[in-house]
Specification:
Bound molecules: NADP nicotinamide-adenine-dinucleotide phosphate
Number of strands: 16
Protein name: Zinc-type alcohol dehydrogenase-like protein
Number of helices: 11
Largest sheet: 7 strands, mixed
Structural class: alpha/beta
Number of domains: 2
Strand content: 25-35%
Helix content: 25-40%
CATH class of the largest domain: Alpha Beta
Family: Belongs to the zinc-containing alcohol dehydrogenase family. Quinone oxidoreductase subfamily.
InterPro entries: ADH-like_C, ADH-like_N, ADH_Zn_typ-1, ER, GroES-like_sf, NAD(P)-bd_dom_sf, Zinc-ADH_QOR/CCCR
Keywords: Metal-binding, NADP, Oxidoreductase, Zinc
GO molecular function: oxidoreductase activity; zinc ion binding
Length: about 350
């Protein structure tokens, strides 16, 4: 009988503050085997998202086995399952992965080929690792949930979108994609660094989300906006959005409310409100799950053509518990600009 191979991984058994030694620990576990639609990927670079912090922190007690988190990776396909048709061994891929499965903070990871893209050729692995989760979120929110057609530039030129939190991970790619689609982009940012960052990414106007957004937007000469993409604090911005949305306009949010959302505020305007959750397709194994493969391939091509650029802003090397802790600390601050990545090269 063949001995099962081992691999290194990083995870947690206790939900501890990041400064505590055991908040993230290195350990050894079995190297998984690819079956069905799965790719086994040798991970080269990962990014840290607010979801990593949320899952690490929430919960009580001690887990029996360490939990491996991490939702963003770039790596090389090491082997493929018997049903795989989109990729072959040796290819460089990037993906965000599934909420239900073991994460990317490990030497090797299994991922379903239908949610994986070919990594951009012209970027470093760190630059590419910044992109998958936030790009999928921004793409699905803009072009699926807000139903903006990215190819109808002429129509989009007439339309305005307010992106609340333009400089964070998702906002940094959403601003670029909305601008590429031809929309007039009003992005929110509250500090000189974030204002400069969103302007470089293509925002036409910048408003301050620490001030009254209704006043901020109206000061620019807009009574209403056609679309709103909410990327930080739905509760805090709900009333402003209800006031600013144009009659028949559309709002999408990626953040959870902590108190009931008063949808009644949208009734007279017959405005649409839609959620975006990047994991929905893989979580429920929806028939259109493969669209995440298509979106990532499209993002890869836009990056290689330099139509959009990486949102990488901070990088640590190599992948280990200490560097992942540093990355978690930055994301926890809620002042992230672009993305933070931990990579082996
Ligand atoms: N549903 C999904 O599929 C999905 C996917 C990805 C992320 N998310 C969630 O979406 C949120 C954003 O993710 P992210 O990765 O873009 O976050 P991030 O990079 O951590 O966002 C940091 C940015 O938030 C801005 N900010 C802080 N407070 C704000 C406020 N009250 N209003 C507006 N902006 C504020 C900060 O700007 P200033 O410093 O200039 O104030 C900072 O640049 C997180 O809650 C995350 O969990 C959901």
């Amino acid at each position: 009988m063949q001995m099962r191979q081992m691999m290194k991984a990083i995870g947690f058994k206790k939900h501890l503050p990041i400064d505590e030694e055991e908040s993230l620990i290195e350990f050894e576990t079995f190297k998984p085997v690819a079956k069905g639609h799965d790719l086994l990927v040798k991970v080269k670079a990962v990014s840290v998202n607010p979801v990593d912090v949320g899952v690490r922190k929430s919960g009580h007690g001690t887990l029996r086995e360490p939990k491996i988190i991490g939702w963003d990776a770039v790596g090389i396909v090491e082997s493929v399952g018997e049903n795989v048709s989109l990729f072959k061994k040796g290819e460089l891929v990037f993906y965000a992965g599934s909420f239900k499965r073991s994460g990317s903070n490990s030497e090797y990871q299994l991922v379903d080929e239908r949610i994986v893209g070919h990594a951009p050729q012209k970027l470093t692995t760190a630059q590419a690792a910044a992109m998958p989760l936030t790009s999928l979120t921004a793409w699905e929110a803009l072009f699926e949930q807000l139903e903006i057609n990215p190819n109808d530039k002429k129509n989009n030129n007439e339309k305005t979108i307010l992106i609340i939190n333009g400089a964070g991970g998702v906002g940094s790619i959403a601003t670029q994609l909305a601008s590429w689609a031809g929309l007039k982009v009003i992005a929110s940012a509250s500090r000189p660094e974030t204002i400069e960052w969103v302007t470089k990414l293509g925002a036409d106007k910048v408003v301050n989300h620490r001030l009254d957004l209704v006043h901020e937007v109206r000061k620019l000469g807009y009574e209403y906006v056609d679309y709103i993409l909410e990327l930080n604090d739905l509760d805090g911005h709900w009333n402003e959005m209800a006031e600013l949305i144009k009659p028949s306009g559309k709002i999408a949010s990626i953040t959870e409310n902590k108190r009931p959302v008063n949808l009644r505020k949208l009734t007279k305007k017959r405005a649409t409100f839609a959620w975006e959750w990047m994991y929905t397709k893989s979580f429920y194994q929806t028939p259109d799950m493969i669209t995440q493969h298509e979106i990532l391939d499209k993002i890869s091509s836009l990056l290689d053509q330099e139509i959009i650029k990486t949102t990488l802003n901070k990088a640590f090397t190599p992948i280990n518990d200490l560097n992942l802790k540093e990355a978690h600390k930055i994301v926890e601050s809620n002042h992230m600009i672009g993305k933070v990545v931990v990579s082996d090269e």
